[in-house]
Amino acid sequence: xxxxxxxxxLLVEASSPSFVALGKAVNxxxxxxxxxxxxxxxxxxxxxxxxxxxxxxxxxxxITASAGDSGYGAQVxxxxxxxxxxxGTSLNYSNGVRTETAWNSTGSGCSAYISKPAWQKDQSCTxxxxxxxxxxxxxxxxxxxxxxxxxxGLKGWLVFGGTSVSSPI
Length: 169
Fold this sequence. Notes:
Blueprint lengths: L18 H13 L4 E4 L3 E2 L17 E5 L8 E2 L7 E11 L2 E6 L6 E2 L18 E2 L2 E4 L6 E9 L2 E7 L2 H4 L3
Parallel strand pairs: 1-3, 3-5, 5-9
Antiparallel strand pairs: 2-4, 5-6, 7-8, 10-11
């Protein structure tokens, strides 16, 4: 909410971490009027992943998904060609100069199963290429959050990162 203070945020939680439950939560968000849906989770690719792709295909709704925090290797739902896969960057400040570079743990890669969308033109990957866009995700340079309740024994200003941060950005 700090990144978009005028946004109207609707939190929809799944009943379990299964892809069916998570997909139903995406459908519920859209049914309730969401025009943007951010997903901060992912799982390893498998040959059965296309079974769940329809949950992430809503015409006119922007759907983002975290590309992951484990380096190279595609994961779903970021691999779906109807989703904007969001990778991560590191923010740097040195000698008065601010720079942004790819975060060394950001998820990326080539899907083994999902077809390449027509707008992807790279030659190095025959299937869906991940990530599409990136934003700050490095936990060392992440986003500051004020938490008035204890989180792992800490409260006050905390810094969070991972592509679970960059996906909603």
